Amino acid sequence: MKNSIHQVWQLEHPVERVWHYLTDSELLAIWLMENDFQPFVGHTFQFRTKAKPKFNFDGNIYCRVLEVIPFKKLSYTWQGGPGKGSVTLDSVVTWTLKPLGHGTELILEHTGFRGLKNFGAYFFMNIGWRKKIRKRLVGLLIENNTL
Question: What CATH class does 2-143 carry?
């Protein structure tokens, strides 16, 4: 069993601005998680959040930038759950940006949820991306309309 998250977000902000929010480490920290991201292919980085030992999650998402096409596409690995040295989720996040009038169509694809061991992560992350993360990004774009 393989599951993938595919979401399309219509944003009322230009592609260049949305790209900035996807690739600036300080802005990412506000709407997604603390991180040491840099938009360069091969760069390894982490997203950091609160650990959840009950779910075998140490609070770190281990990532490596796979693809950077400025203002069009950003892709990175997303590995989580290392408990006792093993990764329980080995996935890829891809952001695709398309101009949409004066705004942007932002497509999120999060792939690689395999088997029953990843079903819980898939289920909760699908909801989280759609409700929490999207809401935070849109709120920040509106709040900081001058960037």
Answer: alpha beta
